[in-house]
Amino acid sequence: MSEEIGSLERVPGVPLAYRRRVGQGPGVVFLGGFRSDMTGDKAAALDAFCAERSTPFLRLDYSGHGASAGRFEDGCVGDWRDDAAHLIAQLTSGRQVLIGSSMGGWIALLLARQATPQALIGIAPAPDFTQALMWPAFSEAQRATILRDGVLELPSAYGAPTPITRRLIEDGRRNLVLDAPMALACPVRLLQGLADPDVPWGHAVRLAQHLDAPDLRLTLIKNGDHRLSRPQDMSLLTQTLAALLG
Fold this sequence. Notes:
By secondary structure, the protein is of the alpha/beta class. The chain has a single domain (about 5-130, about 180-245), classed as Alpha/Beta hydrolase fold, catalytic domain (Rossmann fold), CATH 3.40.50. It has helices spanning about 40-55, 75-90, 105-115, 130-135, 140-150, 165-175, 200-210, 230-245, and strands at about 5-10, 15-20, 25-30, 55-60, 95-100, 120-125, 150-155, 160-165, 180-185, 190-195, 210, 215-220. The chain has an eight-stranded mixed sheet, sandwiched between helices. It has a two-stranded antiparallel sheet with strand order 7-8. It has a two-stranded parallel sheet with strand order 9-11. β7 and β8 (about 160-165) form a beta hairpin. α4 (about 130-135) packs across α6 (about 165-175). The protein starts with a strand and ends with a helix.
């Protein structure tokens, strides 16, 4: 089961990178997080799992992320949702199991609004993080910088400073999912670490309470961090996916 590596354009001149395996049965799509890419540990583990089972698998980089073109600071959640929707429409068939990590969980929920997936897995899901988690944590001076200059360079524990733009904040407010009831007629699984420094576990509880989904399970992982990429976390993820695929 060979892997296809390619790119497609949604916006002219901005190729979006992807990796795809064609297989049998319902497909799986991995949606990465904020400033992440499709070569991380979770994506690789899912790829190996799907390859062994001959399950279709698609992973991708949003514009400004990983191997895709574009500048990160020019993008926002709405753009990255549209990038994912475009590649899914072009490269998959039928309903997919959407697996979203951190911001990817937000994007998965936005996609689920457009079309019901086969199932949805959120890994430390961070819906509405720009409004619910980021904006309240900013100081008055940081907020003023964003409103005045259009961008704030925020120190990051994962590398170079992260540019937080006014466009990102304002677009986030237009794409909230926790501000109105949301029904999901598919299985939903939420995996959340209790030691997550970026997305408090209470945020996952709030999401679980908010969703109108008859088949929803929230798993809280003691000592689990935001990445949830330890061997035992990977095992839980693939076991969760296997149960959903049957």
